[in-house]
Design goal:
Strand order of the largest sheet: 2-1-15
Distance between the termini: 37 Å
Helix content: 10-25%
Number of strands: 15
Largest sheet: 3 strands, mixed
Strand content: 15-25%
CATH class: Alpha Beta
Shape: globular
Order of helices and strands: EHEEEHEEEHEEEHEHEEHEE
Radius of gyration: 18 Å
Structural class: alpha/beta
Number of helices: 6
CATH superfamily: L-arginine/glycine Amidinotransferase, Chain A
Amino acid sequence: MSSITSGAPVSAAAPVASGATPSQVLPQPAERRSTTTDRQETPRRYLMCPPAHFEVSYAINPWMDPAAPVSRERALDQWHALRRVYEGLGHRVEVIDPVEGLPDMVFAANSGTVVGGRVLGARFRSAERADEAAHYRRWFEANGYADVTMPVHVNEAEGDLTWTGRLLLAGTGFRTELAAHAEAQEALGVPVVSLRLVDPRLYHLDTALFVLDDQGPDPLIAYYPPAFSPGSRQVLERLFPDAVIADDTDARCLGLNGVSDGRHVVLPLEATNLAARVALRGFDPVLVDVSELRKAGGGPKCCTMELRD
């Protein structure tokens, strides 16, 4: 594996071998925005599911092609590497057992939203994934969560529900129903802002937007404006005037499907443009190879449900 030394240009990133420890992109201090203070990570707790039964046998999003070859072994290597990244950064990873016949169960983010110990489960739009919701619900109940609500309306959890630390951004347009946003507010007891997605490639909110810093008085996000309706763009501009703006190159590799702990930002290996932008804002990008998992439409965030107890 070729590593990226401190101060090396982000564009110099070499491919990270599957299963290897990804490189960090660390800009020189002079390259960082002068108004940026030192970023502070906060310990996180995640729920993940190994892709032991991973395959692409159906197509429920534009990234899936059942005719294309898929390597389960490579997907497992990439998943284990992602888990090691989180644990290496000091975060705790819980694991739910995979279930045969549910190849997309690896995408844990779609099966629950946890804020303040309250859990809102999932209700999938596609029949192929419907059974995942009950397995995750049982995990929550077996692990001490007393307040678990299962939605009536289609709700694909953190795929379309993003907690900023102050309010919940809720996506609709392709998967999660608008009525589910009101359900989320009632179940989780937090304010909800609805956003409409318009690009079929970016069918979940977590493919078009993610939170970089949820700890301060002013949350910081990164997003790709063309993924949203004109009105939703205006809402995002008003709420997050200092946001990091991604480009089409980032979107084409699901680069917005990232995970941040307030300092380290885990991104797909190919998202070098976005990595450069967040590095200039004082964050430390960590690039991971998720190319096999992306064949099913997933990236780092799709594989990662945050347990906010």
